[in-house]
Amino acid sequence: MKDHIRIAVAALLMLPLVAFGQPRLHRLSFYSHSVHDTMHVVVLLPPHYDRAHAYPVLFLLHGYGGDQNDWTAKTNLVEYTSHIRLIIVMPEAKNSWYVNSQMDPREKYEDYIMRELPKFINKRFPIDTTREAIAGLSMGGYGALVLGLRYPHKFQFIGDLSGAITTPEIIDSMLDVPGFNLGTQRGIMPSIIKAFGKDDKRFRDSHNVFDLIEKDPPATIPYIFMAAGTEDGYVEFRPADHAFIDSLHARGDTRYEYHELPGQHDWKFWNKEVRPMLRRMAEIMELRNQ
């Protein structure tokens, strides 16, 4: 009898990870001609997944130093989506800042994310291409905003948690610092310079979220959800968020929200705030519950 109970409990614990007899989590890979490398992607299917139905999709981006496994390994994403009819795609993007590198023509990460990845996913899963969202954290928060604003007609919703939206403006401020030397830079700066270059201001402006919101009428911009921690160690992020929200307000945009809550630049904060972000996304995209 005890063995039967243990088996029953184990089966119940596995239910959230199974969709009609198949795993909810799929780890896939494909060769990307845009970045000349084999790229990995994690796909989270909804419970009761049925190939006969087309599902809305969320492209969920990782942060600097992260990878495609972060969201399912470090948050309760599987549990949080146990009632939402949604396919979530979590791609590997290395430290690319989700743009076509200005310094390395072999690393076209925007093309990989916006062209090759959707094509790969659409061949394998039934996607409702009229209902798509993009979101991310930190570097991925910037990536979600910049791609969502560069392709405003593709997405209905943009989610940004602790986004590094000072990129690429930080390059201009650093180049003005006396004695700035690219060769001595450490941390994230080499990746930023590699992505955006240091001489092409036109390219940087075309990937600056503040400039991008000025390109399109408010009605054409996807709904924007932003959240940041009040104890975030990147002290320049929140002032940038305030300036961005002020710019949206000044333009007459009404389809946005910004939440500033206790928390740091860490997984505890992102695990907590991804849930209300998903809830708002479900409302905006009119996602049906299971």
User: Radius of gyration in whole Å, from Cα?
Assistant: 20 Å
Task: Report the uncertain regions.
Answer: 1-16
User: Would you count the extended β strands for me?
Assistant: 10
Instruction: Sum up the overall morphology in one term.
Output: globular
Strand order of the largest sheet: 3-4-6-5-7-8-9-10
Any guess at the CATH architecture?
A: 3-Layer(aba) Sandwich
Order of helices and strands: HEEEEEHHEHEHEHHHHEHEH
Give the percentage of residues in beta strands. Answer: 15-25%
Task: Give an overview in words.
- With 290 residues, this protein is α/β, with parallel strands linked by helices.
- The chain has one domain (2-284): 3-Layer(aba) Sandwich (Rossmann fold), CATH 3.40.50.
- 37% of the residues lie in helices and 21% in strands.
- The protein contains eleven helices and ten strands.
- The strands form two sheets. Strands 3-4-6-5-7-8-9-10 form an eight-stranded mixed sheet, with helices on both faces. A two-stranded antiparallel ribbon has the order 1-2.
Short description:
37% of the residues lie in helices and 21% in strands.
What features would you highlight for this structure?
290 residues, single chain, alpha/beta, two-stranded antiparallel ribbon, Rossmann fold
Topology of this structure?
Elements: H1 2-14, E1 18-19, E2 22-23, E3 25-32, E4 37-44, E5 55-61, H2 70-74, H3 77-80, E6 87-91, H4 109-124, E7 127-137, H5 139-150, E8 157-161, H6 169-175, H7 189-196, H8 201-205, H9 209-212, E9 223-229, H10 237-251, E10 256-261, H11 267-284
